[in-house]
Amino acid sequence: MPACELRPATQYDTDAVYALICELKQAEFDHHAFRVGFNANLRDPNMR
């Protein structure tokens, strides 16, 4: 089994995280709203 490397999320992960959440929930969400919220969470030091 290959090793799994964990790292902090970045803004470049937005599309992959969005796709995974949509697949998990079997629903489509507002992509723009998700991007805005995801990037706001990345900038928030309390979310770490």
Describe the structure.
This is Putative acetyltransferase. One of its GO terms (molecular function) is transferase activity. With 48 residues, the chain is mainly alpha-helical. The protein has one domain (11-47). The protein contains 2 helices and no strands. It has helices spanning 14-25, 31-43. The termini are far apart.
Strand and helix layout:
Blueprint: H1 14-25, H2 31-43
Organism: Escherichia coli
Keywords: Transferase
GO molecular function: transferase activity
Please name the defining characteristics of this protein.
48 residues; 2 helices; 0% strand; flat; transferase activity
How many helices does DSSP assign?
Answer: 2
Rg, alpha carbons = 12 Å
State the secondary-structure class: mainly alpha
End-to-end Cα distance, whole Å, is: 29 Å
Taking the sheet with the most strands, its summary is: none
Low-confidence stretches: none
Query: Roughly what is the average pLDDT, rounded to an integer?
Result: 95
Provide a concise account of the structure shown.
This protein is mostly helical and 48 residues long.
